[in-house]
Write a structure and sequence with these properties.
Blueprint lengths: L1 E2 L2 E2 H5 L10 E6 L3 H17 L7 E6 L5 H11 L4 E9 L5 H20 L3 E8 L2 H8 L6 H20 L2
Parallel strand pairs: 3-4, 3-5, 5-6
Antiparallel strand pairs: 1-2
Helix pairs in contact: 2-5, 2-6, 3-4
Length: 164
């Protein structure tokens, strides 16, 4: 996602606020060497943009497969402005990657549509572990920051829409 020479993150940085907002973050434990930096970058970005640290609830699930289930439960409670899903799928030698990636994406999309609560998609789907590590690294890809900014933008949009 880029606009000209500037990245999506650069375009939104400083233009969105988490003040007064609540976020739930659901992070998969599987491929933790990737999901933990994603999680740290998400929380750092949310708090950097005014979200009270106490307003960021973190929950962990075993793997990407469980993300839609946990996100659905949290979204149905309507206590959060946005639910953020974090996971990492790395292609292997079987069709397992394709099945899980498709179902996780479909499931998270369904949660958002069915509950009316935005679900920010922070699930990396990469060909190699190296690609995944690069995307989670705050000095290179920093996809955690990008998904947090998307969550902040959606919280603001839904806040405006809900207030009339």
């Amino acid at each position: 996602m880029s606009t000209g020479d500037r990245s999506y993150a650069a375009e939104l940085s400083g233009r969105v606020s988490g003040a007064g907002r609540r976020f739930a973050v659901v992070a998969a434990r599987f491929n933790g060497n990737v999901t933990e930096p994603l999680l740290q970058n998400v929380v750092a970005c949310l708090t950097e943009h005014g979200t009270d640290a106490k307003a960021v609830e973190v929950h962990r699930v075993p793997g990407a497969w469980e993300l839609p289930q946990a996100c659905a439960r949290l979204a149905r409670d309507k206590r959060h402005d946005v639910v953020i899903a974090l996971g990492c799928l790395i292609r292997g030698e079987t069709a397992h990657f394709d099945v899980i990636a498709h179902e996780v994406a479909r499931g998270l999309g369904a949660v958002s549509l069915e509950t009316g609560v935005p679900v920010a998609f922070g699930v990396l789907t990469t060909e190699t572990e190296r690609q995944a590590v690069e995307r989670a690294d705050p000095k290179r890809g920093n996809k955690g920051r990008e998904v947090a900014l998307a969550a902040l933008e959606m919280a603001e949009l839904f806040g405006r829409l809900n207030s009339g």
